[in-house]
Amino acid sequence: QVQLVESGGGLVQPGGSLRLSCAASGSIFSIAGMRWFRQAPGRQRELVAAIPSGGNPIYADAVKGRFTGSRDNAKNTVYLQMNGLKPEDTAVYYCNADGKTDRFGVWKSYWGQGTQVTVSS
After folding, report:
1. What does the pLDDT look like over 31-68, one tens digit per residue?
2. How far apart are CA 44 and CA 107, in angstroms?
3. Is the pLDDT of residue 28 over 90?
4. Beta-carbon neighbour count of residue 95 at 10 Å?
5. Which of 17, 42, 83, 85 is deepest in the core (most CB within 10 A)?
6. Residue 78: how many CB atoms within 10 A of its CB?
7. What is the average pLDDT across 18-36?
């Protein structure tokens, strides 16, 4: 199994910044795509950023120019730097990754437990 653990959420004022981290651990053979999703109360979960193992991240229109995704493949860790935070960014942020536990296994999608981000004055 692969476990994903997010950290870095919290309460921040509008215009502030937070940096989320998500570390994958467990029986990892390979991690491919890693992503950040968010879910606000009463809304569907939505993709925020997709960070491939190689190549440039892609972002939701709502966060372009404010959020930056990156990853450390050696540490199986993905980050989300969030600047210029707005109240509408308030949500639970989830990490998602595609992983294999052995060379001949199948790719599976794994989720973290989520970390709360609240933007409020």
Report:
1. 899 999 999 999 999 999 999 988 899 999 999 999 99
2. 25
3. no
4. 26
5. 85
6. 28
7. 93
